[in-house]
Amino acid sequence: MNRTILLIEDKPTLSDTLKSLLELYQYTVIVAANGAEGVQQARLNHPDLVISDIYMPVLNGYDMLEQFKQDVTLCNIPVIMLTAKTEIEEIDMALQKGADGYVTKPFVFKNLHAIIKKFIH
Fold first, then answer.
1. Position 1 pLDDT exceeds 70
2. pLDDT of residue 73
3. Which DSSP category does 84 fall into?
4. What are the Response regulatory domain coordinates in residue numbering (predicted)?
């Protein structure tokens, strides 16, 4: 069964690279450039998993998480934060706001994929 991942990332080069890697593993990938677009895409496509940056224009990852957790149609979708922020306060904040996983950039795709597989089989 083909699983759908919503990738929310404002840097096109990282977004394109990650999309290509995920597609190699037979995931369907929907891309959004900011949190607001991500919430909209999630409502339209009901992905199996979301991978999101934190610091983006329009709507950041923290505010996006709050919108997901307040929306009955989105609140059960697992969200993995993918960010350059390594401070424990940032990790705690993301987890408190409802993130299911946290991966820091730069990352090894194999490690990210292991976390993805925990949430979607």
1. no
2. 95
3. S
4. 4-120
Give me the phi and psi of 78, to 5 degrees please. Answer: -65, 140
Whole-structure pTM value: 0.94
- Domains, the chain, in order of start with CATH, read 4-119 (3.40.50.2300)
pLDDT digits (tens, 9 = 90+) for 66-89: 999 999 999 999 999 998 888 899
Question: Parallel, antiparallel, or unpaired for β 4-8 and 28-32?
Answer: parallel
Which residues on neighbouring strands pair with residue 104, listed in sequence order?
Answer: 83
Query: How would you label 84-119 residue by residue, b for 16+ Cβ within 10 Å and e otherwise?
Result: ebeeeebbebbeebbbbbbbeeeeeeeebeebbeeb
SS3 120: coil
